Amino acid sequence: MAPGDGYDLCPGSAAAQGTSAGLTCGTGPNPAPDPMVRAEVSRGSAVRGGRPGGGGGTRRRQQGALRDSPLPPPPPFPAPRQLTTEPRSRGTSRKMAAPLDMEPSALSLELLPTDPLLLILSFLDYRDLMSCCYLSRRLNQLSSHDPLWKRHCKKYWLISEEEKSQRNQSWKAIFISTYSDLGRYIKYYATLKKAWDDLEKYLGQRCPRMIGSLKESVREEDLDAVEAQIGCKLPDDYRCSFRIHNGQKLVVPGLMGSMALSNHYRSEDLLDIDTAAGGFQQRLGLKQCLPLTFCIHTGLSQYMALESVEGRNKYEIFYQCPDQMARNPSAIDMFITGTSYLEWFTSYVNKVVTGGYPIIRDQIFRYVHDKECVATTEDITVSVSTSFLPELSSVHPPHYFFTYRIRIEMSKDALPEKACQLDSRYWKITNAKGDVEEVQGPGVVGEFPIISPGKVYEYTSCTTFSTTSGYMEGHYTFHCLYYKDKFFNVTIPRFHMVCPTFKVSIARMEINHNEYAVDEDEDSTDTDEYEDHRRVWDIPAPGGRCPRHT
Could you tell me which residues belong to the region Disordered (predicted)? Predict the structure, then answer.
């Protein structure tokens, strides 16, 4: 309930008082007037056959009782209808005016019985339900009926029956007390709380060590202090998430996913509010950007823009990517990962809890698997998942780094004589321009795995493109262990790799193109020049050569 709604939701107010049968709000010691008396007063006091003004005493008693109530007085009663007589025309028959009681009266909501009224109130949102407390005494009593607030407690605050019994409060009291603390976030709370609950439940079963790194929630005062410290307002969805969990400790593995190659490792922690505030950026290129994640191995962070400056949208989330071809250090390109904190966090959690990101060695690995990217040859199935590595990529020059994880599995129902060994691989690699490269070599990542019924073999490799997307396909050549002279090919399904949406730094637009010295030629070939190019581009070089296309 926003300020200016005209009512108070504090637990101590009259609106929060009541019994288990239903909370009464501002009724005072006087019982609610009889609805029939109210209807009689509303029809006016000048009733044909009655004494003029005969209803005035009832009306005055009714208004006096309402004045004693802390609720705002109801609208004034309508003035009594006045009967008028007109002179009869000569020759007309004498007609008696119809009695006023015979005229159809306007339908009044309060004339309905209790059960239909409660049914109507059950369809109202919490704002409208609270507003009904200020329409009349009867609606005040009915809208405080406790079961009406159960739905709102579950919808907005995810309060369970068990939690209610532990708190030993009515549903309405729980709603009001929770609103007084978290009402600012009512638009986001249920979505974020469910995401956190789902994530904790999922990780508790698969990698409980990560759950222990989560921090408790922060207070409103802590978030306000951070805003004062950095001089920028934090978005409400971000604040709401930190009212549930204050990020995590700087440990490995990180909550926001990992990635590993033979010579490269990344694991991103979700920063707590104080650490994030300490990394708030004011330098050119990252002005007014707040870090959300951090990898202690690579120094990689995802940032959230708190203002619409330097070509960024407000609350956009991105990986920074320095322009390696510009002489201006403020020229920083961006790989976009989210348009808001809510979308960024909940979409990540959804991929985790639905199995979109695999759990490997008690860590969340950010490999994306296309369910259609599977090929079966006889009893052997090959499936592929991929991932983009922003820390090893650049927009200028165009160099997009991908890793892929391949799973080779023989059916457990296969005959024992189907056991075989991988001899070689063949790759056909196509970039977005249609340029094709073919690679053939022995084994995979220096190994020649043996596949037998029920056995699984997995390995990871990588590739690069000078275009924002590309795809690979090919086959493995196996020989049978029981029939040494029998060779056969196993299809590797086509799998696509696409880099995230990116934005070019506005600083680049202000620089003369003559300042760029590096040629933007295709670099997706499998040659030893790969590492030399990487050092020229000043992209963080791995400790050893990445085994591409293996």
Answer: 1-97
